[in-house]
Amino acid sequence: MVNTLELPIRHALRTQSLDDPCSAYEHHFGALPPWMEELSSAAAGSLARQALRAGVPLAQADQVS
Q1: Tell me, what's the pLDDT at 2?
Q2: Cα radius of gyration rounded to whole Å, the chain
Q3: pTM more than 0.70
Q4: Residues 21/45, Cβ–Cβ less than 8 Å
Q5: Which terminus of the chain has a smaller tally of CB atoms within 10 A, N or C?
Q6: DSSP string for residues in the chain
Q7: Are 62 and 51 a contacting pair, CB within 8 Å?
Q8: Residue 13: CB partners within 8 Å, gap ≥ 6?
Q9: In angstroms, what CA-CA distances link 6 with 9, 29, 40?
Q10: CB 52 within 8 A of CB 17
């Protein structure tokens, strides 16, 4: 018996997320949360990269963590 494991291909996403994490976030999850506009570009990019690594969209609670 052979077990297989399907993994998503993330190479293109990784390359895009290094260039512009906010664009990669929008491509993967849809629009950025409205509260992201209140953050500096460095903080917004950091949160977008964190969400992409975790594979889950940002929630309001992520703003304060």
Answers
A1: 77
A2: 14
A3: no
A4: yes
A5: N
A6: ----------HHHHHHHHH-HHHHHHHHHSSPPGGGGGS-HHHHHHHHHHHHHHTS---GGGGT-
A7: yes
A8: 24, 27, 28, 52
A9: 9, 21, 37
A10: yes
